[in-house]
Amino acid sequence: xTLDAVPENTSPSPEQLDRKLAELADRSLLIVxxxxxxxxxxxxxxxxxxxxxxxxxxxxxxxxKARVRPPAFAVVDLRLDDGSGLDVxxxxxxxxxxxxxxxxxxYGNIATAVAAVKAGATDYLPKPADxxxxxxxxxxxEGDLPPPPEHPMSADRVRWEHxxxxxxxxxxxxxxxxxxxxxxxxxxxxxxxxxxxxx
Length: 199
Known about the structure:
Layout (H helix, E strand, L loop, with lengths): L13 H10 L4 E5 L3 H14 L2 E5 L2 H10 L4 E5 L1 E2 L2 E2 H11 L4 E6 L4 H10 L3 E4 L4 H9 L15 H15 L4 H8 L3 H9 L6
Parallel strand pairs: 1-2, 1-3, 3-6, 6-7
Antiparallel strand pairs: 4-5
């Protein structure tokens, strides 16, 4: 493939996203994150952009708000102090099937994020995600390409993520994971015992 044949990034501009939001009849947004400071900051940023925001800092509160006033949009952290954000995603999907739910996940939880998408989430973003990324993800349409990451994962980190995912899929069974990865069991144990490589 020549350089001329590389497709251009088709992500919409900030102005296009602003226009798209202005045209929506329902701009309700629920943000669920147990980091109160982060939750408040993101809520303020989304309000400035035109969303009608409600915030929750727990699974219980998120599920309750989803049931009482099902939002058109939601941003849910997958790891919450009182449980899994997957329960909030399921509650949102049950209360309003067309709700556009974006989940936030740490790099080590990519497999869980995939499970969240299967549970009804529209997409996921690795943390830390800034307000612009969240805004773009909330208003993205099928076929929209996200902008390239400023700091993509290193090759070592991608390898580590793949190993973690297979490990989770094998119900954390080291022997089965080693067999599927065609790796010596002790080598795998050493990898799993180490901290994740820097992204």
